[in-house]
Amino acid sequence: MSFSKDLKQELSKLNNLAKKDQVKQELIGYLISSNTSVDNKENVRYATENEYNINRFSKLLKNMNVDFKIEMEGKTFVIKFNLKESKIVTIENSEIFQKENNLQEEQKKALIRGVFLGSGSINNPENKYHLEITFSNKENLNNILQLLKEFGISFKPLNSSKKHSIYIKEGEEISNFLALIGANSSVLKFEDIRIQREMRGKVNRLVNCKSANLNKTINASVEQINAIKKLQANKKFNKLDDNLKEIAKLRLENPDMPLSELGKLLSNPVGKSGVNYRLKKIIEIANEL
Fold first, then answer.
1. Is there a single domain that holds both residue 170 and residue 109?
2. Is 70 helix (H, G, I), strand (E, B) or coil?
3. C-alpha 263: how far from its chain's center?
4. Same domain, 86 and 156
5. Of these four, 8, 65, 74, 221, which has the most CB atoms within 10 Å of its CB?
6. CA 108 to CA 22: how far, in whole Å?
7. Which of 153, 131, 155, 129 is nearest to 142 (CA)?
8. Taking a C-beta distance cutoff of 8 angstroms, is the pair 112, 119 a contact?
9. 8 A C-beta contact, residue 231 and residue 240
10. Cα–Cα distance measured from residue 18 to residue 26, given in angstroms and rounded to the nearest whole number
11. Contact (Cβ atoms closer than 8 angstroms) between residue 145 and residue 77
């Protein structure tokens, strides 16, 4: 299965259904998600293609003794029930959102988990980091955004007249969010993937850096050799100072050798900077021809 399905499966099996207060908040999370619609302020319709989403939602409804029915529309699971009869919350209550200031920490986490299960998505972290949640309206989005800030998790809103969503693209923030909603196994898997990605990134950067340095060294060597050959062709080579002629001959004999190694071969060895100075002097003389 994909990382996203594994995550939803884990969340669908969370064993906290005995805690009615948390169950109610998780249900409200589902209700404010973009996959839920309400007709005439009472007929609820929740639709998803994810079997784990629908499985969890049905468990929550059963736990609250809500009568519901599940239908199939092609590949889509649809749950329908009457909001007024369920007595979970009324549509007038801030468009379903429960504006209580005294929610406990675990209740807030349940609410956030519900809205993620309702309409959240996460990309395969092996490819890129992107977690997004869409909402039924902007007010619900802002309310959840505020709750997330209380937990120190910074989502960014996606400004669109057709879509109300928030997202994060940072690996550490996604990991913190998964831990917040209780997906402990998925956090471990995500962190394992994140470490592997970071290691691959470091290796690639190291290889690219070495490659860039090698190209730089080769280009410099070619320039030095061309300058020396130009001086030879113009009968100017023998007029160079002895220290310049010595390094020039060594460069011709060792075109790929690093400057520090060339310096060790001199009759009076010098460091990298000394070799670099002499070769630059040779290039300057050749450029004046």
1. yes
2. strand
3. 47
4. yes
5. 8
6. 8
7. 155
8. no
9. yes
10. 13
11. no
Distance, in Å, from the CA atom of 203 to the CA atom of 199, rounded to the nearest integer, reads: 6
- How far is it, in rounded angstroms, from Cα 68 to Cα 226? 84
Nearest-CA neighbor of 59 among 114, 112, 119?
A: 114
What's the total number of domains in the chain?
Answer: 2
User: Are 6 and 183 in contact, with CB atoms under 8 Å apart?
Assistant: no
Structure-token pair, residue 283: 């290039």
Domain that holds residue 73: 3-182
Regarding whether 152 and 76 lie in a shared domain, the answer is yes
The 8 Å CB, 24+ separation contacts for 59-65 are 59/12, 59/17, 60/17, 60/23, 60/26, 60/27, 60/30, 60/114, 61/27, 61/86, 63/17, 63/20, 63/23, 64/20, 64/23, 64/24, 64/27, 64/88
* Residue 197 neighbours by CB under 8 Å, 6+ apart: 125, 126, 171
Let me know: does 46 contact 35? Beta carbons within 8 Å.
yes
pLDDT digits 0-9 by tens, 152-204: 999 999 867 678 999 999 999 999 999 999 999 999 999 988 888 877 767 77
Name the strand (E) or helix (H) holding 160: none
Q: What's residue 177's pLDDT?
A: 97
- Single out the residue in 182, 209, 232 at which a domain terminates: 182
Question: 169 is written with which tokens?
Answer: 């693209």
Within 26-96, strands assigned E span: 36-39, 43-48, 69-73, 76-82
DSSP state of 239: G
Distances (CA, A) of 159 to 162, 166, 204: 9, 9, 35
Any idea what the Cα angle at residue 203 is, between residues 198 and 205, rounded to 5°?
90
Q: What is the CA radius of gyration of the chain?
A: 33
